[in-house]
Amino acid sequence: MPDLLLELFSEEIPARMQRRAAEDLKKLVTDALVERGFVYEGAKAFSTPRRLALNIVGLPVKGQDVREERKGPRVGAPEAALQGFLKSAGLSSIDEAKIESDPKKGEFYVALIEKPGLPTQEVLAEILPQIIKTFPWPKSMRWGAASKEPGSLRWVRPLHSIVCTFGPETEDPDVVRFEVDGIVSSDVTYGHRFMAPDAIRVKRFDDYVTSLERAKVVLDADRRKDIILHDARDLAFAQGLQLVEDEGLLEEVAGLVEWPVVLMGSFDESFLEIPPEVIRTTIRANQKCFVLFDPRTDKLANKFVLTSNLVAKDGGKTIVAGNERVVHARLSDAKFFWQTDQKTKLEDRLEKLKQIVFHEKLGTQFERVERIAALAKELAPIVGAEPALAERAARLAKADLVTEMVGEFPELQGLMGRYYAALEGENPSVALALEEHYKPLGPSDRVPTDPVSVAVALADKIDTLVGFWAIDEKPTGSKDPYALRRAALGVIRLVLENNLRIGLFREIWKHARPFVSLLSRQPLHVTGEIGPDSIDEFIEFARDLKGDLESREGAKTIVMLANCFSNPGNLSSFFADRLKVYLRDQGARHDLIDAVFSLEGQDDLLMIVRRVEALGGFLETEDGKNLLAGYRRAANILRIEEKKDGKAYDGAPSRDLIHAHGETEEKVLFEVLETASRHAREHVNREDFAGAMKALAELRPAVDAFFDKVTVNAEDSALRENRLTLLNAIREATLTVADFSKIEG
Questions:
Q1: How far apart are CA 420 and CA 346, in angstroms?
Q2: What is the pTM of this model?
Q3: Are the CB atoms for 254 and 225 separated by under 8 Å?
Q4: CA nearest 378: which of 493, 470, 511, 491?
Q5: Which tens digit of pLDDT belongs to each residue from 487-526?
Q6: In the 3-class helix/strand/coil scheme, how is 428-464 assigned residue by residue?
Q7: Would you call 8 helix, strand, or coil by DSSP?
Q8: In terms of CATH architecture, what is 3-61+119-214?
Q9: Cα dihedral angle (332, 336, 342, 344), rounded to 10 degrees?
Q10: Which numeric CATH code is attached to 590-742?
């Protein structure tokens, strides 16, 4: 079967765009072919700094023939209908159509349309120009004289040539002829910019790859990565050193070179007094080089590995020297920043935070630090931290944002705070918290365990969540510009992985208080403390204020806060959704999380998880399955009867009525229900959720017998109503551990 070779040769393509562009090219071309009925065996895309390439194997030489019967108007239809049919079917006369009969509709015309499959080359020549002209580059440009013309080609960098060949393995392929803005497709490409710049005539893909290799171009990005990694390891090993591997940097460097040549440089040992992360960041960011580790000293070595794009005549000495000069200059700057920053204590930098706006509606970084410090101090006893240390760490947590080093390298925020705090003699836990309070940054990031770090990390994330919820800046769809999903997941992981007992939503509500005066920008003159502990009281308090102080901005702000947190899409629901994602990744069922979260007052994440685990285990047993079935039967009957009667049967069943007129099975269920409910509550109070489930399992035989022997809709209305309230008592009993109505399956 023939195959296709397509290459788009241009000026330098940014490394960060190359892989995505190669995959886009593959998808666009293969989708267009499939849409036209062309099947293929396989496709693979490639990228280098100067070219995108695509190889599709197993394409047919022509598309499939199409044979179609098209039904037309009835015999005797108006002339206009006949002419329309002839035109759409491509017929010159109605005599070219055949007549078919239908017992119900009579005779009608049918056109037999046969379309031979188009040659593949013809189809490629049609689809490829359009794909190239509309290619989805994140950023693109026009160039040359043609750039003045409307609709001229846009490409990431000037496009120079197009290779497009198609043909079977046993023959010389043909060039697929087309033109894009004056660039005519051919079988000519070009090798390495410096080492083999001459034109190369290529045929099919295998010949293309071999020709490029001879012209000092490694087409496959993964192969370039492999060459760089192994050569760098070998160079390091020869010096008794270890390569500090960096997958992100490796990917970037492989996108900067077509013929990777790995070399080693060095820098003055005096720079090793700078923190190793600073050295690595400086060399990585400015020179795209790897640093090396010396196992003999357990520190970084004063050497680095660089990747050249050519084999130099002097063995790379000039290239290495050039990189060493730049690295020296960059490390000199870093050393200056490092020494300059140490002249001013972190605490003395706090005033500068008043000049940094965190968010126009949420105030400055200084105001935010004040809120975080107060919350960290409050959370400290809950997480086992010393309140004074937690407050101190929170106050210093953002101070490194105004250092020279973080100003130059923002990715070092937190880390530099830890270094400077340690040099200033701060408590080790305080210094550590300055770095760790940002963590975890993602699902695979480490979770802090030091109590001070945990307190500040929780306070930082809760402040972010409450603040943006207060101004109604919530994530929507795939958009989450303030990383609120990540913040919520961070809170969840901090709580669960440190086994913390914390009334999370209570803390969230309490932390809403500082935002009242911030958002209203004027004090509230009300009696009592703003924001009582109870969520319900807070909402009621806010609504009362609205009635009494309708014209006051502060009152409106409190009402707005209450609405943000209490309405659908509230912060509690957001946490529930994030917890579902987290637990689903751990193998838990989302419906069980709903069943537990639906219970009133569930804001202890650790206990929620333990309930979910116990509920999941219980429902796997026969007792659990049967109790769920009994609950559903009771709930279904109740729902039907309550809807029919227009009232809820939520009272307590009458013991006297049951003992006087009830069936034996009814009496047994009543007694067992009372005992099992009490036992379940006792187990829940002891946080023994498995025991609570086991207690509820005692209901199973009594529930089964009740439904087998007792008629709920008795003729006696009092007896019927009492039996419905007994069914409600089953429903209420299960609410001791979970809302069974949320359980699926």
A1: 7
A2: 0.78
A3: yes
A4: 511
A5: 999 999 999 999 998 887 777 767 766 776 566 554 433 3
A6: HHHHHHHHHCCCCCCCCCCCCCCHHHHHHHHHHHHHH
A7: strand
A8: 2-Layer Sandwich (3.30)
A9: -160
A10: 1.10.730
